[in-house]
Design goal:
The complex is a heterodimer of chains A (about 375) and B (about 400). With about 375 residues, chain A is an alpha+beta fold. Chain A has 11 helices and 9 strands. Chain A has 3 domains: about 120 residues, Orthogonal Bundle (Butyryl-Coa Dehydrogenase, subunit A, domain 1); about 100 residues, Butyryl-CoA Dehydrogenase, subunit A, domain 2 (Beta Barrel); about 150 residues, Butyryl-CoA Dehydrogenase, subunit A, domain 3 (Up-down Bundle). In chain A, strands 2-3-7-6 form a 4-stranded antiparallel beta sheet, with no helix packed on it. In chain A, strands 1-4-5 form a 3-stranded mixed beta sheet, with helices on one face. Chain A has a two-stranded antiparallel sheet with strand order 8-9. In chain B, helix 7 packs parallel to helix 9 and helix 8 packs antiparallel against helix 9. Chain B is built from 11 helices and 10 strands. Helix content of chain B is about 45%, strand content about 15%. Chain B has 3 domains: about 120 residues, Acyl-CoA dehydrogenase/oxidase, N-terminal domain (Butyryl-Coa Dehydrogenase, subunit A, domain 1), CATH 1.10.540.10; about 110 residues, Butyryl-CoA Dehydrogenase, subunit A, domain 2 (Beta Barrel); about 150 residues, Up-down Bundle (Butyryl-CoA Dehydrogenase, subunit A, domain 3), CATH 1.20.140. The radius of gyration of chain B is 22 Å and the shape is globular. The chains are: A alpha+beta (about 375), B alpha+beta (about 400). Chains A and B meet through helix 7, strand 9, helix 8, helix 9 and helix 11 of A and strand 10, helix 8, helix 9 and helix 11 of B.
């Protein structure tokens, strides 16, 4: 495994970089935040991303995708992360595609995947139920009643839950809470009567919802793949999600850092550029080192996913841990080094801090992944 | 690729025939080979292995054939290392000459110097040491004051160097000397090669907080060094010095990886399980388990970064400061975690009450404190990153 990008991946990254710079600079996010847009992303912009083929990067060619892999979508996420570009790419093109493609039957795949590629359908993966990511802590239930499934329970912090056309609900079909066995995933239309979707308002001004199922009645074909057996695959789907969000966080970090270093060169106090102070220089240099480590962890994880490496779990936890630690550090230092202007809403740097803390929570904090890494490694 | 596979087969056959059996067993410290005029070989097969590898030029695989090197390209060198690794071959030669001096002679030396010095370095006939730091010039290396006066056919050298590793065992020294006392400090330095057997050169070993060490003080008292031993142009030695420091940093940065650098080779997880006990197969103490996990994850990410730098075609550059800083700080952290995990067993000094391994870890812990000082302090590395990578103002 070489820790560099192929020519095609580099080309995709360059394309995404120009896209983010030209079409979705941070002002794009600010406009959406200050609007009444319930999606928290812009339809026309998403349409353009779809036209570039980004919705189908993980989709097999037979369903109209490009099969460009995790490296492909991760470099896009990284570039979009730099300008905090909101879009359905994580919930739909990573999680939705991976869930349907890895769990679904051929019929389900041909039903959903082409519509995802064309931008007709967006998805959300409803998994977490508590205040912290804990994927097998599933209390929501699905019980077979004659030829129907009946779902009950609550899901929280569902990414894009407020707008997704299809909600992918993780429910327990057997065994006890905490077990990885006995878990199944159902594809549900957002307009189902017994589905109560409540948009929540978060610090990062993105799209999340809490979802409640009260005797939600589903046809048998709503079950993705086989009953009870989603647990292990779900872990892999989440790993792909973790790698994608780590790439986005790397992008957040790189930009927040660059903006801050530039500020250190511009801002003058005591008659000199504040970047000449060693107290700030050494902190900046240490951040640089952590960012370099993050780049390596992210690129190793995305290649591991594409090569089906047996190191995937460890590397995805390493990437999310390192991306989380680094973004946490850099988002805090960015504010401090900007001084007073850094805590004003008028200045963009605060957006990175708000996005940082939410992203750190998504699919497990650094502590979560530290514990997971230790267990896998036998520490 | 095909020629590479042919090469691999050639290497394999040659090693099969030429690598003596005992050179495929784990290295014992007293059999480490550094070469030189006064080398003593505890194991005669070490000498045989050195001679064979040296004749082949594979002690310095990338250096040109015509100076005795292996003349291999990047891919071939990788193959050679892989095959050596596969048979667990010991390093045929440890050499500051190869690691630090040879790349500089190649870049800055005269044709005569290349022909004179490189073959002897590669064959391990001459052992080199490095004369950089002085009592008054540590981080501010360019303030050095060891004087070299132009006496026509030779320089007259007077002054003192410190932290010269293995000066008491080396045959020659590459030293930074002041040839232009009136020039601005960076512009009055020259890079001079001096035979340690010359009259007026003397050395004295330094004892560290960790005990005996290879470090010495080196004194020059009216030493005559022939003019042909000047590398590059007079008063432009600082450029060479900086280049050489990058090679040194790249070498030291491997300290960040478990088993690399100064240390006992012990694994922190195994140590923690042994001294703190196990619970469900893991380290029993949850707080220390957490710190150690964090450490191991950083190490994993750091290792990947070294790999990425290589995959990107990594040349010695400002990035070497990052590796030097991070690797040495990480190594210090490793030994702090290790002695913490060992409790009072991590604090032994002699064999009364402590095993050899335990004492070795205590000594190694103390020795790591020098890692972030030698070869440029951590603070200097951070300065380099700030200035050269981030372009922050002075």
């Amino acid at each position: 495994m070489k820790l560099i990008l192929t020519e095609e991946q580099q080309f995709l990254k360059d394309t995404a970089q120009s896209f983010a710079r030209d079409k979705t600079p941070v002002t794009h996010f600010r406009e959406i935040r200050d609007s009444e847009n319930i999606n928290c992303w812009d339809d026309a912009t998403w349409k353009e991303m779809v036209d570039l083929g980004w919705s189908g990067i993980l989709v097999p060619e037979q369903f109209g995708g490009s099969e460009f892999g995790m490296a492909g979508i991760s470099v896009i996420m990284q570039e979009l992360g730099k300008t905090l570009t909101p879009s359905p790419i994580l919930a739909t093109s990573v999680l939705g595609v991976a869930t349907i493609n890895m769990l679904g039957s051929e019929e389900q795949k041909s039903n959903y995947l082409p519509k995802i590629v064309s931008g007709e359908v967006t998805t959300a993966l409803a998994i977490d139920e508590g205040n912290h990511h804990n994927p097998f802590n599933v209390e929501a239930t699905a019980k077979l009643d004659g030829d129907h499934w009946i779902l009950n329970g609550k899901k929280v912090f569902v990414i894009d839950g407020a707008s997704a056309d299809t909600i992918l609900i993780v429910a327990r079909t057997s065994e006890k809470t905490g077990e990885s066995n006995g878990i199944s995933v159902f594809a549900v239309d957002k307009d189902s009567a017994e589905l109560d979707i409540t948009k929540i308002s978060t610090a990062d001004s993105r799209n999340y919802a809490n979802i409640e199922m009260s005797d939600l009645k589903l046809e048998q074909k709503a079950l993705l793949g086989e009953q009870d057996l989603a647990g292990e695959t779900l872990e892999k789907i989440l790993d792909l999600g973790r790698i994608a969000i780590s790439a986005e966080m790397l992008g957040n970090t790189e930009e927040a850092f660059e903006v801050t270093v530039n500020y250190l060169k511009e801002r003058k106090q005591f008659g000199v550029q504040i970047g000449s102070f060693q107290a700030l220089q050494h902190r900046a240099a240490k951040m640089f080192c952590e960012i370099e480590l993050t780049k390596s962890a992210v690129i190793a994880a995305m290649h591991a996913a594409d090569e089906n490496s047996n190191e995937l779990e460890r590397l995805s936890s390493l990437a999310k841990f390192q991306a989380g630690e680094t973004l946490h550090l850099v988002s805090n230092e960015a504010i401090q080094m900007h001084g007073g202007i850094g805590v004003t809403d008028e200045y963009d740097i605060g957006f990175y801090l708000k996005r940082a803390r939410v992203a750190e929570q998504i699919f497990g904090t650094s502590e979560f992944h530290q514990a997971r890494y230790a267990n896998i490694s036998g520490f | 690729m095909e020629h590479l596979e042919t090469f691999r087969q050639e290497v394999r056959d040659w090693l099969e025939e030429n690598c003596p059996p005992s050179m495929r067993t784990p290295l014992v410290p007293e059999e480490e080979v550094w070469g030189g005029r006064n080398a003593e070989y505890v194991n005669p097969e070490s000498k045989l292995w050195l001679d064979r590898m040296g004749a082949k030029g594979w002690t310095a695989p990338t250096l040109p054939n015509k100076y005795g090197g292996g003349g291999l390209d990047r891919d071939q060198t990788k193959v050679l290392h892989q095959e050596l690794f596969k048979i667990k071959a010991r390093p045929a030669l440890n050499s500051f000459g190869i690691w630090m001096l040879a790349p500089c002679i190649i870049e800055f030396g005269s044709e005569e110097q290349k022909r004179e010095h490189l073959p002897k370095i590669i064959k391990g006939e001459i052992r080199w040491c490095q004369g950089y730091s002085e009592p008054g010039s540590g981080s501010d290396l360019a303030s050095l004051s060891t004087k070299a006066e132009d006496m026509g056919d030779h320089y007259l050298v007077n002054g003192q160097k410190v932290w010269t590793s293995y000066a008491d065992k080396a045959d020659w020294i590459f030293a930074l000397v002041r040839t232009g006392p009136k020039e601005p400090k960076h512009n009055g330095i020259s890079f001079l090669l001096i035979d340690m057997a010359t009259e007026g050169v003397s050395t004295k070993p330094i004892t560290l907080i960790s005990g005996k060490s290879p470090f010495c003080e080196t004194f020059f008292d009216g030493v005559k060094a022939p003019k042909e031993n000047l590398v590059g142009i007079e008063n432009s030695g600082w450029t060479i010095a900086k280049k050489l420091l990058q090679h040194e940093r790249n070498f030291i940065s491997n300290f960040g990886l478990a088993g690399g650098g100064t240390g006992s080779g012990a694994d922190v997880v195994n140590i923690a399980k042994k001294y703190l006990g196990e619970e469900n197969g893991g380290i029993a103490d949850s707080f220390q388990r957490e710190s150690i996990t964090m450490h191991k994850m950083k190490e994993h990410a750091f290792g990947l970064t070294l790999q990425r730098s290589g995959d990107e075609g990594g040349k010695a550059s400002a990035a070497s400061s990052m590796f030097k800083y991070y690797g040495t700080e990480h190594n210090k952290d490793r030994y702090e975690l290790m002695i913490a995990a060992m409790g009072n067993k991590g604090l032994g000094w002699t064999s009364e009450g402590f095993s050899d391994d335990e004492q070795a870890i205590t000594k190694a812990w103390l020795r790591t404190k020098a890692n972030s000082i030698e070869g440029g302090t951590s603070e200097v590395q951070l300065n380099v990153i700030s200035r050269r990578v981030l372009d922050l103002p002075n």
